[in-house]
Amino acid sequence: METVKGYVDHIIYRSEDTGYSVFILENKDGESTCVGNFPVIEEGELLELDGETVLHPSYGTQFKVKESRRCEPDDLHSMEVYLGSGTIKGLGAVLAGKIVEHFGEETFKVIEEEPERLAEIKGISGKKAMEIAFQMESKKELRRGMIYLQKFGISTNLAVKIYKEYGESVYNVIEENPYKLAETVDGIGFKIADQIAINAGFRLDSEFRIQSGILYALQQGIASGSVYMLEAELMGLTASLLEVELSEITRFLMDLAIDKKIVIKDEEGGKKIYLSHFYYMELEVAARLKELDQKFSIDQERVSEDIKKIEKEATTVLDETQQLAILRAMENGVSILTGGPGTGKTTTISTMIRLFIENGLEVLLAAPTGRAAKRMSETTGYEAKTIHRLLEVSGAPEGRGSSFSRNEENPLEADVIIVDEMSMIDISLMHSLLKAVLKGCRLVFVGDRNQLPSVGAGAVLEDMIKADQFATTTLEKIFRQASKSDIVVNAHKINRGEEVMLDNKSADFFFLKRYDPRVIVAVIIRLITENLPQYLKLSPLDIQVITPTRIGAVGVEQLNVALQERLNPPTAGKAEKKVSFGVLRVGDKVMQTKNNYQLEWQVRTKFGLTIDKGVGIFNGDIGIVKRIDNYQMEVEIEFDDERVVSYPFGNLDELELAYAITVHKSQGSEYPAVVMPMYSGPRMLMHRNLLYTAITRAKNLVTLVGDEKVFAQMISNEYISERNTSLSERIQELYEEYQ
Ligand SMILES: Nc1ncnc2c1ncn2[C@@H]1O[C@H](COP(=O)(O)OP(=O)(O)OP(=O)(O)O)[C@@H](O)[C@H]1O
């Protein structure tokens, strides 16, 4: 057995499920590749590893880790890394290097006992020396806590978060119930808490472990879109996650229900188990909708006349169904307008908005993503905001207190709120929106029920339509102009499960038959870099590659690497930064992959004057890397809507390349041209709904590259991911109560 010690320089591969990790360890002897199982591992950590050097047939020499220990900084290099890691404000890597070079082994002792001596270093004033000493002193307890936490295999980053949450009571939490961490500390889930608990000597069948495991299983359900789980399903998942027999599960469920952590509803079809928060969100959404769904009396004839006047100016005559949608929106507190592409939704809402405004009503327009809001503004001619912006992001992290400044205490001032792309809205956003709406305001929900459901839990639009209590208008006719577009016509065919001709006689819908995945990728690259930009007079960055899968030969990850290499290769003078997905380079197209309520943005004029600012960058926002500053340790990104954000290096793992994105991430956006590979993939992904969503993202051109059999199979695959949601039942119950 050999022992090596060094810093985790770069993680090459990691499986979150098994903890299997491949990384580069750096020490004074150079770099070595290490492999092993690590429940948690982070770049920058100092590790001591026991294991052996082996020769892998394809990957060469590797150090196979058997045991690992985290170390506190002791040698010179470690002290330098600790001081320069950003823990001490005002101390960067360069100054840290100078300090350690000057004081050697004595560094920490000097800082703690004779801090004034720091001023011996050029660049450190007496005042700064005292500030550094003060920070070191105030972090003494923290350092002690960290060393304690690291004994349980907790990484430095997480240890800081835990310590921030619990301070000196951290010792009790770990000894009494480490599973609490999973509920209270951002970034710690069940798996990490479980590892800590096991390291701290908890039994596999401990009560805390089983209760925490049940909550974790419920969260897994939520992550896949469901709001509740049936008891049997929950038990099965919990037992397999915990690897224990669960004969006494009912007792634990009752305990969790008494603690108000879950809600159990014994209904037709079995016992439904909810995380309390989700149960009450559905209940409150149903109650708010019922409350807002007032009847308004209107003069129908006058409305018809007003519509005629607007039609004359706009030169489009609305058909009967479109007019009906407008009447319903005026008469009802809650109404729904649904239909596929080209069925005239936008035309209808544009007229509706004018009517409301001409009647002196205050109208607000909103959509779930920045791109969808931008499109709504362009097509209606009135300003639309993202729902997050409408509700004014407060900066509180998601799930901790109210994320929005607009709520029941500070409601939106509006008579009408029209929300587009409703299919993307999950139960949580709907809940926040409805909390901020006053009784007497009309809500008009617009969307296409055949699009993929929201990324977050719930099926709000579908459930509202299914409940059959709100005035709903479905537009079915494709208008003449739209019917000339094969994108629209084919989208409707796909939605009905009909065959689509692939003879390439179309002006806007092409299918290039290729069968080898390497050839598919090569053709996509050629389309993006040469053919399409010329044909459409667009920049390659305006053409979006959309693909069903993340991994695999034509998945997002592979395509992004290939596209980055062609569209934004390294050149002298172009700044770069190593990141978890590879390299980030100035000029790269990137996407934010989670909601971040704290990141600050600014909109600047071309002379650099700030004209608007705020907080919050959200999942799916796409931008371009403008600057990488290795000194300030930040990356500047300009998003589509001109918002500019400085990402500290620590936030870069929230980004990924966006030359290619998944269909799920493309929801609610529209692009001038879309290119999509058609190659085999899992049946639960390769379905009609997904193909329909992908194709309807394109405004002027769709190009599919791949196997026509896969295309046909997707059209006939009616798989719809079954989500356990009960909003429609909750709505129906309320309406029945009042009958
Ligand atoms: N009553 C109408 N008579 C004639 N043309 C119409 C009518 N309503 C809409 N159109 C035309 O049909 C086309 C599609 O309409 P619109 O953009 O409103 O549909 P949509 O449902 O919003 O489509 P998408 O979801 O694709 O944006 C437009 O060119 C529009 O001018």
UniProtKB/TrEMBL annotation:
Query: Could you say which enzyme class this protein belongs to?
Result: isomerase
Q: Gene that codes for this?
A: recD2
What's the family? Belongs to the RecD family. RecD2 subfamily.
Q: Which SMART domains match?
A: AAA
Q: What is this protein called?
A: ATP-dependent RecD2 DNA helicase
Q: Which residues bind ATP?
A: 342-346
**Lineage, top ranks:** Bacteria, Bacillati, Bacillota, Clostridia, Lachnospirales
Give the enzyme's EC designation. 5.6.2.3
Q: What does this protein do?
A: DNA-dependent ATPase and ATP-dependent 5'-3' DNA helicase. Has no activity on blunt DNA or DNA with 3'-overhangs, requires at least 10 bases of 5'-ssDNA for helicase activity.
Tell me which residues make up the AAA+ ATPase domain.
331-449
Output the superkingdom of the source species.
Bacteria
